[in-house]
């Protein structure tokens, strides 16, 4: 099947839009990188009311904006992920630009080898193949972490979504059960995380090449010996939630690296809610990913 060589985006500016130069709309409101704006300008592929307009001219409420991107605008216009079965794909949200799926616990986010299959991205590639679309990974979840996972469907929105993630304009809330009783109903953990000095699979507080990590949490439930916590990240370090709560002496239930639970107890960490601005629009969506069975089974256990 032939790959698309062009992607078009259309938007009408809302009635409450404050007039500003077209360049500022593209940079400040739609988060386009400057090299893509240069390509659009050079090819006269950014139109206002069906006419080319220099990017230093103002745009106004009600104006129609059209953007045309070509495959040659991107270093990697096609993701080329090998399609696998689409049976496990649970769609939380989909539009022409992006997809949010409820990732299955135990599934890797993306392949690490060119011909690897069996990952969430392989499954999504099979789901999108009939639409002649491909998945582009934006962020990842650990293999044992379930829940909302954001995937782009064309190369033009990839740098936009990456910037939204980097600037914390996409708000993700995790749910997790941790061991023990957290005495504070809410709190902030600000402790550097680096590489483990003894186990290359792990991270540790103040380990090798540490970087500051900030985690906010709020207690939303309790049971004997465990606390249910809603967590938001202000930074995005590897294993951040897992290392921070282990560092407090309250490791996540079922964590194979940082807790001492029986092997059959699965990790109870779930990407629960996602709020994001939609690219090339002025809309936001808030999505909730249903909890896996492992959470429900743990809640019903008696200690």
From TrEMBL:
Question: What are the residue boundaries of the Pseudouridine synthase RsuA/RluA-like domain, all occurrences included?
Answer: 97-246
Reactions the enzyme catalyzes: a uridine in RNA = a pseudouridine in RNA
Query: Which residues are in coiled coils?
Result: none
Stored Gene3D superfamilies = Pseudouridine synthase (3.30.2350.10)
Give the matching InterPro entries: PsdUridine_synth_cat_dom_sf, PsdUridine_synth_RluA-like_CS, PsdUridine_synth_RsuA/RluA, RluA_PseudoU_synthase
Please give the family membership noted in the entry. Belongs to the pseudouridine synthase RluA family.
Under which name does UniProt file this protein? RNA pseudouridylate synthase
What's the gene?
Answer: rluD_4
């Amino acid at each position: 099947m032939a790959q698309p060589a062009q992607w078009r985006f259309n938007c009408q500016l809302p009635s409450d839009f404050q007039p500003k130069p077209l360049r500022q709309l593209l940079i400040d409101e739609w988060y386009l990188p400057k090299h893509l704006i240069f390509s659009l300008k050079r090819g006269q592929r950014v139109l206002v009311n069906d006419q080319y307009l220099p990017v230093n001219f103002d745009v106004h409420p009600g104006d129609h904006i059209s953007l045309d991107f070509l495959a040659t605008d991107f270093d990697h216009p096609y993701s080329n992920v090998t399609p696998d079965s689409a049976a496990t794909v649970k769609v939380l949200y989909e539009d022409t630009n992006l997809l949010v799926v409820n990732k299955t616990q135990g599934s890797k986010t993306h392949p690490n080898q060119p011909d690897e299959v069996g990952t969430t991205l392989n499954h999504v590639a099979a789901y999108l193949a009939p639409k002649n679309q491909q998945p582009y990974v934006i962020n990842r979840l650990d293999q044992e972490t379930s829940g909302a996972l954001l995937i782009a469907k064309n190369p033009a929105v990839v740098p936009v979504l990456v910037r939204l993630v980097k600037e914390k304009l996409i708000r993700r809330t995790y749910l997790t059960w941790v061991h023990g009783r957290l005495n504070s109903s809410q709190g902030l953990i600000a402790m550097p995380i680096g590489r483990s000095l003894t186990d290359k699979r792990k991270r540790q507080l103040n380990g090798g090449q540490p970087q500051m990590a900030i985690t906010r949490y709020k207690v939303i439930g309790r049971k004997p010996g465990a606390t249910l916590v809603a967590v938001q990240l202000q930074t995005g370090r590897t294993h951040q939630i897992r290392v921070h709560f282990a560092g407090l002496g309250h490791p996540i239930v079922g964590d194979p690296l940082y807790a001492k639970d029986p092997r059959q107890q699965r990790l109870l960490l779930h990407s629960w809610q996602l709020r994001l601005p939609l690219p090339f629009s002025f809309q936001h969506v808030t999505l909730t990913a249903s909890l896996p069975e492992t959470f429900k089974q743990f809640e019903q256990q008696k200690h």
